[in-house]
Amino acid sequence: MKPPPFSYYAPTSVQEAVALLGSLENARVLAGGQSLLPMLNMRFATPDHVIDINRIPDLTGMAIRDGEVVIGAMTRQRDLEFSPLIREHLPLMHEALQFVGHRQTRNRGTIGGSLCHLDPAAELPCIAAAHDAVVDVVSESGAREIRFAEFPLGYLTPSLEPGEMVRAIRFPIWPTRTGASFVEFARRHGDFAIVSVAVLVTMGADGAIERASLTFGGVGSGPMRMHDVESALIGKRLDAVAIKAAAETCGAIEIDDDPYTPPHYRKHLCRTLVARALETAASRASGSRP
Q1: Which domains does the chain have, with CATH numbers?
Q2: How many angstroms separate the CA atoms of 272 and 279, rounded?
Q3: Residues 96, 124: contact at Cβ < 8 Å?
């Protein structure tokens, strides 16, 4: 199929882009195009105006500021994948990027586009939820921050107001003695995950867990943080007993049915992948595994 007719704009500054967004009815922002272009071709999206933000240099790049990794919304997934800064300070993201589509899609796909599309099984929204990321958005009326926990409104729906666009995403850096692990199961490599798990654990000097983050992708309308499991892990050593208890709790979550994967199979994957991710994260936090 072919996309419906639309007017095309290519602003070269953030100010120009938000002015267009604020003045045009039924407009969509084009970032990497890995989601929007297929939706246009299949007539799932029918905007009257497409605003291409690929020519805005202020939306790309990454830096460390005030204990956070700040990433421009138009930063390509491929650049994140090969960034020494991401590998050192956001190892969870570095590991998850290996599962994002294929090389060709990562060459064009952007972090801001992935977060705004909010596919429930996508890896980068799961990482943003795990890190308690903050999304910086801008419009003609000014800028504001959205905690990522409040960013998804529902299925494929971010909490952006009309006329707003994402400018950057801020990821808090976890302390030393933190282990990270991302695992997922998909039908084929590069497919969206049936279930994915992102884990961060920080160990104290005595080997007990001081801080934990456990997030699922693919099991709901968006990323799912398991706050009860995280709280239960604090103060414990991540031994076989603690891992089994966490896995069993995760395997009991409510999961909606769909035409492709029955809930009991996803629950089985939740138990298996959580145990695997926790074991790997604990090993990395203790320095016994790279």
Answers
A1: 7-52 (3.30.43.10), 64-172 (3.30.465.10), 178-285 (3.30.390.50)
A2: 11
A3: yes
Residue type, 154: G
Distance (Å) of CA 261 to CA 117, 201, 217: 22, 30, 14
pLDDT in tens, the chain (290 residues): 789 999 999 999 999 999 999 999 999 999 999 999 999 999 999 999 999 999 999 999 999 999 999 999 999 999 999 999 999 999 999 999 999 999 999 999 999 999 999 999 999 999 999 999 999 999 999 999 999 999 999 999 999 999 999 999 999 999 999 999 999 999 998 888 999 999 999 999 999 999 999 999 999 999 999 999 999 999 999 999 999 999 999 999 999 778 889 999 999 999 999 999 999 999 999 886 66
Would you give the distance in Å from CA 38 to the centre of its chain?
20
CA atoms within 13 A on the CB side of 124: 26
- Is residue 30 within 8 A of residue 9, CB to CB? The reply is no
Rounded Cα distance between 286 and 237, Å, is: 11
CB of 4 closer than 8 Å to CB of 37: no
Alpha-carbon span 143 to 61, nearest angstrom: 19
Nearest alpha carbon to residue 193 among 147, 226, 152, 224: 224
Q: What order of strands is seen across the sheet that includes strand 27-30?
A: 7-9, 49-52, 27-30
Residue found under tokens 């300070």: 89
Q: Distance between CA 276 and CA 290 in Å, rounded?
A: 15
Structure tokens at 58: 């202020």
In which residue are the tokens 């690929």 written? 54
Which amino acid does the sequence have at 246?
A
